[in-house]
Amino acid sequence: MIKNLWAPWRMKYINELGNSGDCFLCRYFNSPQDDADNFVLWRTQASLACLNRFPYTNGHLLIAPAEHKSDLADLTHTEMLELIQMLTKAQQALKQALNPQGFNVGMNLGRCAGAGLPDHLHFHIVPRWQGDTNFMAITGEVRVIPQDLAESYRAIKAAADAL
């Protein structure tokens, strides 16, 4: 028996993959007035932190440099330092807001490495909890995201603002 799992929110992501002229991270940097709508948690001159709209789990954040760069070697020392400082703040905010027991931190460089946006490098920081890999992912190839993006945004933003 064929079962359907409806995820209509994924269509926006699928459609954006084919639009190589549009980088959502650059769009976010150029529209600070839309930070709440774009789930941008905080920004500096050289970087920003935002919720991933297509998360592995609730609280999945992206940390990106302001400049549209695809290679780590193209980053300045200032950009590198600021990205690591942003990751540190992200981890602290996630700890305070969601109380995870661990984190995955990583970066996919290039489409074949899994980068959905290969031309604008960015870190992923994914909060993890003991037992969060459950039968849904194993048997149903489905992830269960237990928290609404707007709710996650409010909690993490409040924690980040308090740091």
Features:
HIT family, subunit A, alpha+beta, 5 helices, globular, 163 residues, 15% strand
Descriptive overview:
The protein has 163 residues and is an alpha+beta fold. The protein has one domain (22-162): HIT family, subunit A (2-Layer Sandwich), CATH 3.30.428.10. 34% of the residues lie in helices and 15% in strands. The chain is built from five helices and five strands; from the N terminus they run ααβββαββαα. Strands 1-2-3-5-4 form a five-stranded antiparallel sheet. Helix 3 (77-98) crosses helix 5. The N and C termini lie far apart (51 Å). The relative contact order is 0.18. The model has no long low-confidence stretch (mean pLDDT 84).
